[in-house]
Structure formats: structure tokens, C-alpha cells
Design goal:
Layout: E1 3-8, E2 14-19, E3 24-28, H1 29-34, H2 37-46, E4 60-66, E5 70-75, E6 83-85, H3 86-94, H4 96-109
Protein name: Gamma-butyrobetaine hydroxylase-like N-terminal domain-containing protein
Keywords: Iron, Metal-binding
GO molecular function, one term: metal ion binding
Length: 126
């Protein structure tokens, strides 16, 4: 099955993918961001790859075709180095739940969360 069209979802939280047979699929920005090959390669070289935490709210703000083999995505956390090939996107649409389970399980094992922790201001009186 070939990918016919890739656009940003209206909410900017997913890629909207239209397959050759007309089927429509959404790939969450969070999932694309944490499985970025550029992120993974850089971390593997440094210390062994781990999923980046705190990406639950990440949004896409641009997607552009790269030759005839994929797309490049720009995220609101300023990450833009990853290129997503057509085979990778097809695999992610077919196995989206398995990818998400792997990601969440790995974060739990590392004691991390997909949500950004916000520090609360102290209410001490002076």
C-alpha cells in the first residue's frame, strides 16, 4: 500500500495520512517525535538510546516532502532533524499501538513520564 498524501491534522497534534486505497490514518506527533531516527542515532552514540520524556504535548508545525522517499517534520520543541520514510510511516500506522506500548513501557522502566512536570511555586509566607 502506498501513501498518497500527508498533511498536518487540524489540531497540529498528528500527521494525517491518506493511503492509496483512500484509507485515512492519523499518526500522533508524540509518537513521531519519540521515534525520530535523528534523536535515536544521536543518543545511541552518546549513552545508549532511551526514549525522551515529556513529549505528550508536542505539536507539529510543518511537514515537507523529502525527494520521493518521505517527509521531514518540524515540531514545536524545535526538533526538525528527522526524516520519516514512506516505509517507516506505513509501519507506524499499522503498528501504532505496539509502538506506543513499547514507548510507555520503556518510560515506566526508566522512572520517567511522557508529561512535562511543572514546578509549583512555594507558598511560604515571609
Amino acid at each position: 500500500m502506498a501513501i498518497r498524501l500527508v498533511t498536518l491534522s487540524a489540531e497540529l497534534n498528528a500527521l494525517a495520512i491518506v493511503l492509496g486505497d483512500g484509507a485515512k490514518m492519523l499518526l500522533p506527533a508524540e509518537l513521531l517525535r519519540v521515534y525520530s531516527k535523528a534523536e535515536r542515532t544521536a543518543r545511541e552514540r552518546r549513552e545508549g538510546w532511551r526514549f525522551p520524556p515529556g513529549k505528550a504535548g508536542v505539536r507539529l508545525y510543518q511537514v515537507k516532502p523529502v525527494g520521493r522517499y518521505g517527509v521531514q517534520c518540524w515540531f514545536d520543541d524545535l526538533h526538525s532533524a528527522g526524516i520519516y520514510t514512506w516505509p517507516m510511516l506505513l509501519d507506524m500506522t499499522r503498528r501504532k499501538r505496539a509502538y506506543m506500548r513499547e514507548y510507555l513501557s520503556s518510560l515506566r522502566e526508566d522512572g520517567l513520564t511522557r508529561h512535562v512536570k511543572v514546578a509549583r511555586a512555594s507558598r511560604r509566607r515571609v
